[in-house]
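Support request, priority: normal
Reporter: lab tech (M.K.)
Component: structure prediction queue

Hi team, I submitted a job for Methylglyoxalase from Bacillus atrophaeus yesterday, and the status page still shows it as pending. I've pasted the exact input below so you can check whether something in the sequence is tripping the parser. The sequence length should be 127 residues. Please let me know if I need to resubmit or if it's stuck on your end.
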Amino acid sequence: MKIIVTSIFVQDQDKALEFYTEKLGFVKKEDVPMGKFRWITLVSEEDQDGTELLLEPNEHPAAKEYQKKIFAEGFPATMFGVTDIRKEYKRLMEKGVKFTMEPTKMGEVTVAVFDDTCGNLIQIIQK
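Reply from support: The job had stalled in the queue. We restarted it manually and it finished. Here are the results:
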């Protein structure tokens, strides 16, 4: 068994698609109309056959509440791995990404956290 799709709640699918592709560099894999919303998945540019990230509308009240609460508490909704966190931090800062935590060494890893502008904090990590 392996993970093929994971999701993240977003407030606006179009805004999220733009942020995740234009700022972060992910590649759109699927974009299928599904009634009022769309099935939009993204993949890493480096692994286009890898795990897909679904931009899931936070339309359900429980999803909205969950997203709002973890954001308010400062918990990242998900984590992305990078090979050079300082280089990635600089690249994202130059693209206007707002960080809530700059690269910080924590034991064997270095982490940073940014706001995805769609209701989530995202953590990047270098092992």
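The chain has one domain: 5-126. The helical segments are 13-23, 61-72, 85-94. Let us know if anything else looks off. Ticket resolved.
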